[in-house]
Design brief:
The structure is a single chain. The chain is an alpha/beta fold and 179 residues long. It is built from five helices and eight strands. Strands 4-3-2-5-1-6-8-7 form an eight-stranded mixed sheet. Strand 7 and strand 8 form a beta hairpin. The longest helix has 11 residues. 27% of the residues are buried.
Length: 179
């Protein structure tokens, strides 16, 4: 049985919206190493519709020369959770249908390896509530955003996590992995 590994760029106050606000901090190569360790264990990608529609134009034309993560995003099978999409436009993508926790449990059993999720806030919040997330990989930026979508909404049930890894980078970002 595979595990679900979620990756989020997050502000100090928990906002996980489209991370254009991260650009001011640059990219520490060690952040790439941490994320490569996560994606290296994953044999599938699970995305919500909005993230899929943001990622497809951003990643589909990139090559390994542009970004070492491009082969993972382009060559790995992507499952898109959506009740509105009917056709996948990015290679190796499959429309998974509307959110169904039992179908995601079955996918965890089917995939020979772990499953990577990035962004996809609505999907991630639902999977957290249903106990489907095995690991959170957070890049926490030293900024507050105020209003915006949070990883954990105000009405989220209390939960406990165990720290699996942590690193700090020269750009002020903290990498935190919790199981």
């Amino acid at each position: 049985m595979g595990e679900i590994h979620v990756h989020e760029f997050m502000s100090l106050d928990g906002v996980i919206d489209a991370p254009t606000w991260t650009f001011d901090y640059g990219w520490d190569p060690r952040m790439g190493d941490a994320l490569a360790a996560v994606t290296g264990r994953c044999q599938a990608i699970l995305l919500g519709r909005t993230t899929y529609e943001m990622f497809e134009p951003a990643w589909s034309t990139r090559t390994v020369e542009d970004d070492p993560g491009a082969p993972f995003f382009n060559d790995t099978t992507k499952y898109v959770v959506s009740s509105t999409l009917t056709e996948a436009t990015w290679r190796n993508s499959k429309i998974f249908g509307p959110y169904d926790p039992d179908a995601i449990r079955a996918l965890k059993d089917e995939v020979d390896g772990d499953i990577y999720v990035s962004g996809s806030g609505t999907l991630v919040r639902a999977m957290l509530a249903d106990g489907l997330v095995d690991e959170l990989n957070l890049c926490v930026y030293p900024v507050t955003r105020g209003p915006g979508p949070r990883l954990f909404p105000e009405d989220a049930a209390p939960g406990k996590f165990t720290r699996a890894a942590s690193e700090s980078y020269d750009n002020g970002v903290l990498y935190l992995a919790y199981r």
